[in-house]
């Protein structure tokens, strides 16, 4: 239905065009975030949305860019409603652009309904606390920074690190279903909503091929905003993806894992639009509302009492200059429930995935592991591995001063433990999909390299059952 059919505002001519923004005067009643149909002098239409409304003035961001628009020949039609996308269960297995339009050669999805991309806020009293463990098949996540259904756990990466490969591996292993380690063993069935923002064409092709060849694509919906697409579309892409995720989780009762990469590209687009609008910049030129904008995305996660489904988020961001205090990772860390941090040093050693265990954290992990969930010894096991590996860093620092040969016998055992930990627990390759049982057993085998009296975080009964070293 066109805007004229709706009987809404229509304006011929604009006051000025700046980058992806169009400034329109002489408007009537127009609302913030309203969808706009923009028709150029040749009759070609593109969409935009209202960013700002003043007395008789509206600022519009144009999704496809303003190339080809003229001051006098551009016609603006205000639709009177926010941007909506079709949502349907049949969208699983499909690939869409950043605005939710199919780009896989298939037809338009048969919409079960049209949903506002801004979503609806979840009543805090309706939320259900996350307690169910998700097995990703990655030891450093499952064993030491456990992900729960309904949690938002970002991955902090940096330029040149293999976060794309890690994202694809998690999608494959979660989408295809792996045992969750609960007795009796049962399969976890997840649907994946994958949103890529500002990625290069070869990266987008890698994701498509990886999901297709593994058979995971049947459980995945992809939203792709490429690096050569208009940056303004990046502001819509995660919202479109989360809108579909909410429909699948809360109306269809599915467990949905949402992976969004790269959130830094999203924030760069937000900064670009803010600068064009002439807003007063905050830290490093980002708008002062960066925190609330990110929160509006991350908080569209969780479980609610009225649905069996859940939304779990794994946003991925690259830290500019490897700086974890940069506004994007800094604010993300405040909003989310922990972080998985990738290490450039481990990557240089050929370790994959190069997860830096010590600065990584899952704040909800304690509620999803243990008796009846993973294994009874899991919590103490993780605490002991953290403590032992932290001591390894102290021993390595000492060895750099006095030399490894001058270390005590116990400290030399810690050095050997640290190398084995990085090679056998952290390092597992692109194809290995480990069960939680395998992860725990590997950890105990490495802990057995240390004297029993050094293992103070585990119980005596756990030592009796799992410790294989000498007393």
Could you explain the architecture of this structure?
It is a single chain. With 471 residues, the chain is of the alpha/beta class. The chain has 3 domains: 3-82, Thrombin, subunit H (Beta Barrel), CATH 2.40.10; 86-367, Rossmann fold (3-Layer(aba) Sandwich), CATH 3.40.50; 378-466, no CATH class. The protein has helices at 3-6, 139-142, 163-175, 201-214, 237-251, 263-276, 290-298, 327-335, 344-348, 378-402, 409-426, 436-447, 460-466; strands at residues 10-12, 16-18, 21-25, 34-39, 45-54, 57-62, 75-82, 84-87, 95-97, 113-116, 127-128, 133-134, 147-148, 155-157, 190-199, 220-226, 255-261, 303-304, 310-318, 338-341, 361-362. The strands form 5 sheets. Strands 9-16-15-17-19-14-20-21 form an 8-stranded mixed beta sheet, with helices on both faces. Residues 1-7 and 179-187 have low confidence and may be disordered.
Structural features:
471 residues, alpha/beta, Thrombin, subunit H, Rossmann fold, 3 domains, eight-stranded mixed beta sheet, seven-stranded antiparallel beta sheet, 13 helices, 32% helix, elongated, disordered N terminus
């Amino acid at each position: 239905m066109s805007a004229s059919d709706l009987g809404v505002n229509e304006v011929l001519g604009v006051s000025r065009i700046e980058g992806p923004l169009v400034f329109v005067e002489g408007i009537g009643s127009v609302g913030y975030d309203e969808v706009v149909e923009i028709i150029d002098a040749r009759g070609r239409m593109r969409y935009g949305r209202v960013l700002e409304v003043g007395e008789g003035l509206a600022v519009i961001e144009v999704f496809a860019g303003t190339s080809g628009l003229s001051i006098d020949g551009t016609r603006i039609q205000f639709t009177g409603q926010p941007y909506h996308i079709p949502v349907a269960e049949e969208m699983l297995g499909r690939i869409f652009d950043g605005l939710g339009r199919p780009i896989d050669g298939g037809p338009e999805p048969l919409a079960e309904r049209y949903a506002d991309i801004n979503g609806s806020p979840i009543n805090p009293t309706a939320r259900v606390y996350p307690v169910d463990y998700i097995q990703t098949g990655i030891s450093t996540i499952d064993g030491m920074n456990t992900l729960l259904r309904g949690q938002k756990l970002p991955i902090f990466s940096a330029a040149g690190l293999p976060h794309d490969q890690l994202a694809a591996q998690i999608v494959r292993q979660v989408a295809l279903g792996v045992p969750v380690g609960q007795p009796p063993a049962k399969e976890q069935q997840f649907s994946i909503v994958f949103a890529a923002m500002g990625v290069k064409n070869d990266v987008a092709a890698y994701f498509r091929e990886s999901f297709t060849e593994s058979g995971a694509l049947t459980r995945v919906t992809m939203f792709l905003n490429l690096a050569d697409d208009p940056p303004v579309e990046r502001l819509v892409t995660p919202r479109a993806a989360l809108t579909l995720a909410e429909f699948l989780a809360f109306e269809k009762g599915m467990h949905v894992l949402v992976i969004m990469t790269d959130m830094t590209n999203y924030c760069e687009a937000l900064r670009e639009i803010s600068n064009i609008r002439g807003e007063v910049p905050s830290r490093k030129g980002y708008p002062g509302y960066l925190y609330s904008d990110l929160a509006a995305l991350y908080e569209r996660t969780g479980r609610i009492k009225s649905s069996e489904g859940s939304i779990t988020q794994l946003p991925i961001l690259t830290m500019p200059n490897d700086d974890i205090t940069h506004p994007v990772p800094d604010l993300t860390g405040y909003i989310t429930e922990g972080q998985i941090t990738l290490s450039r040093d481990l990557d240089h050693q050929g370790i994959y995935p190069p997860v830096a265990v010590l600065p990584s954290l899952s704040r909800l992990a304690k509620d999803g592991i243990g008796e009846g969930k993973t294994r009874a010894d899991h919590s103490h096991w993780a605490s002991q591995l953290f403590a032992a590996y932290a001591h390894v860093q102290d021993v390595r620092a000492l060895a750099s001063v006095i030399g490894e040969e001058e270390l005590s016998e116990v400290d030399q055992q810690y050095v050997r433990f640290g190398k084995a930990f990085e090679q056998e627990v952290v390092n597992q390759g692109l194809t290995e999909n480990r069960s939680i049982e395998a992860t725990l057993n590997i950890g105990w085998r490495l802990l057995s390299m240390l004297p029993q009296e050094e293992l103070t975080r585990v119980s005596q009964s756990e030592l009796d059952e799992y410790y294989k070293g000498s007393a």
